[in-house]
Design a protein that fits this description.
Layout lengths: L1 H20 L14 E5 L6 H17 L3 E5 L6 H8 L7 E6 H11 L11 E10 L1 E5 L8 H10 L5 E4 L5 H12 L6 E4 L3 H9 L5 E5 H9 L4 E5 L25 E8 L4 H15 L2 H8 L4 E2 L4 H22 L5
Parallel strand pairs: 1-2, 1-3, 6-7, 6-8
Antiparallel strand pairs: 3-10, 4-10, 4-11, 5-8, 5-9
Helix pairs in contact: 2-9, 4-11, 6-11
Length: about 325
């Protein structure tokens, strides 16, 4: 009897000690029980930053927890992405990923990239897409893609195009266009960022560039540039009169996307919870309206939907990187 009581007492003491060794509420607190960090791997002001801040505000209201946006720019978004890949897989650190950080970077940086886009992240969802538009200077005697292609073929080497940098998405979209149009002979002029690349076009220093639809729209409306095509499978709601290049018989698409990911190993129940809450947030009419104003189209896919996009886009953008000469084979 005494031995039995002693064993029971020791068991109770052991259980109490074990529970005290765990963080407070670790076993019982529902997710999320503290603020979530949302890493934006680019500088403030761009599409991913604006998207992240809209999402953080509305998601925080929905889950009754603060969602804190942290800008961690550097190396085309790979610095912030690497930070998330190395974070604890508890669902409290997420990244606004994009085709630059997770489809272009594997080929552009190769072995220098410190993460594997498939092995080091938990996919939460493909959140939104936005179109890339190729625009030309008004001095160019072409009103659409077919006319520009014919003009460029008749004057090889004459036309120049700006980009936000070698290997940047804008560069690769223009390379896709150049190749799909039959190997147009044009000169690439890289700039240090999207803003100077656009300014170069506005000033007439180059004849064309590729930009996101929301960036292009005010310049198109002001007559400062002319859109010749949308690099997507469907027309942009913001530019309904501009055909896709596919419609014009130039068979390529280079649409951009934003996704939510976390470090590999997030438990399934937490990943599912994140997907459900973020999807519900993005589908709110007010959220969709705010995102539409910056040219974003809400997708809010399942985790597998994001995996499918990565499996499609990593080789697609990888080929564009190699074809562009940004890296060698």
């Amino acid at each position: 009897m005494v031995d039995t009581l002693r064993r029971q007492l020791l068991g109770t003491v052991g259980a109490l000690a074990a529970s005290r060794a765990l963080p407070a509420g670790a076993q019982s607190a529902p997710f999320p029980s503290r603020p979530i960090r949302l890493i934006v791997p680019h500088a403030p002001g761009g599409n991913s930053d604006t998207f992240g801040r809209i999402l953080a505000l509305k998601l925080g209201e929905r889950i009754n927890q603060q969602v804190v946006v942290e800008n961690r720019p550097g190396a085309g978004g790979t610095v912030g992405s690497a930070l998330v890949a190395k974070s604890p897989p508890d669902g409290y650190t997420l990244v606004v990923a994009d085709n630059g950080t997770h489809a272009i970077a594997p080929t552009l940086y190769g072995t220098k990239l410190s993460y594997d886009v498939f092995k080091d992240f938990t996919p939460v969802m493909l959140a939104a897409t936005f179109p890339t538009v190729i625009v030309i200077h008004p001095s160019v005697a072409a009103s659409n893609a077919k006319e520009f292609v014919a003009l460029a073929k008749s004057q090889p080497g004459k036309f120049t195009y700006s980009s936000a940098g070698t290997g940047n998405g804008s560069h690769l979209v223009l390379e896709m266009f150049r190749t799909a149009a039959g190997g147009l002979d044009m000169v690439h002029v890289p700039y240090k960022g999207g803003a100077p690349a656009v300014q170069a076009l506005l000033a007439g220093e180059v004849q064309l560039t590729a930009v996101s639809g929301n960036t292009a729209l005010p310049h198109i409306q002001a007559g400062k540039v002319r859109a010749i095509g949308v690099a997507a499978t469907e027309r942009s709601p913001a530019l309904p009169d501009v055909p896709t290049f596919i419609e014009s018989g130039i068979l390529f698409e280079g649409g951009s996307w934003l996704a939510i990911m976390g470090p590999a190993g997030i438990p399934d129940d937490i990943a599912t919870k994140l997907n459900q809450e973020i999807a519900a947030t993005l589908r709110q009419p007010e959220t969709q309206e705010r995102l539409a104003k910056i040219g974003l189209i809400v997708v809010a896919s399942s985790p597998s939907g994001l995996t499918d996009v990565l499996q499609r886009d990593v080789p697609k953008w990888g080929k564009a990187v190699k074809d562009s000469g940004a890296v060698s084979d």
